[in-house]
Amino acid sequence: MPRDEEYSRKKLERFLPVFRNAAVNGLREVLDGYQATGHVHRKNTSRSIARDHIVDNLRGDLMLDPEVSIKDRNQTTYFEIAGEFRLLAKMANANGMVALNPNQTSFAYQANGQSDMFASEELPGTTNLYLSYVPNPMEPREPFVYVICPKKNGYHWRFEIEPPAVELAGEIGGGLPLTGDDDAADLVRIPQEKKPDDISE
User: Fold this and answer.
1) For the range 156-160, what are the long-range contacts, defined as Cβ-Cβ under 8 Å and sequence gap of 24 or more?
2) What is d(CA 153, CA 104) in angstroms, rounded to the nearest whole number?
3) Which segments of the chain have a pLDDT < 70?
């Protein structure tokens, strides 16, 4: 049985920003690089090009990580992570389903059970995952990015990797800590409004 969502989130926590950046940047590279010719590609060709860019970004960010092993098999790149997970980049639809190649390897990966096709002494009982993006029709350069744990006819769980929070540029008063009365000059004074009874007619 694949690892549960809560456990997987904790184990993968430090990788999640890398996953999101790879998916977003990979898709943006495709949007920017194929503006003039993208319309001529078939849907599965466009999907494959985006996947290749995402994989290239992942490879660049993870190749020196001691907890990651990158394996290329049959024109597919697998990222083996933390000794417990195997990650594959795939586009998903809004329902969290990915398009599968009609072959035994794709179906075995999707089923997420023990399979001789993925047997490895280093990774017994590995949980298969997809790093997936879902196109955002309102803002194509900001896709929704998910980690999906597949099963034979759907998925066990999925969660969205949220974009990082935007930091505030500063605070009123310069954002300096108050250490004494001399700092009062740095504060912004808000004049008190007169009450209706105080206003002369």
Assistant:
1) 156/2, 156/5, 156/112, 157/4, 157/5, 157/8, 158/96, 159/5, 159/9
2) 15
3) 1, 36, 38-40, 42, 114-124, 166-201
Question: What residue spans define the domains of the chain?
Answer: 5-160
Helix (H, G, I), strand (E, B) or coil at 157: strand
List of residues 6+ apart from 152 with CB closer than 8 A: 110, 111, 112
Sign of CA dihedral 55, 44, 97, 114: negative
Q: From CA 125, how far away is CA 127, in angstroms rounded?
A: 7
Burial class (CB in 10 A: 0-12, 13-18, 19+), 190: exposed
| Short-list 63, 85, 64, 79, CA closest to 9 | 85
For 178, the token pair is 């108050």
Enter the tokens of residue 27.
């898709």
With contact defined as beta carbons under 8 Å apart, do 132 and 91 qualify?
A: yes
* Residue among 79, 60, 77 at smallest CA distance from 12: 79
Give the per-residue pLDDT at 103. 82
pLDDT confidence of residue 201: 46
CA–CA separation, 79 and 88 (whole Å): 7
Q: How far is CA 190 from the centre of its chain?
A: 43
pTM above 0.85, yes or no: no
Task: Please write the tens of the pLDDT for every residue from 29-38.
Answer: 998 987 767 6
pLDDT for position 191 = 52
Sorted by sequence, the CB contacts under 8 Å of residue 82 that are 6+ apart come out as: 11, 12, 67
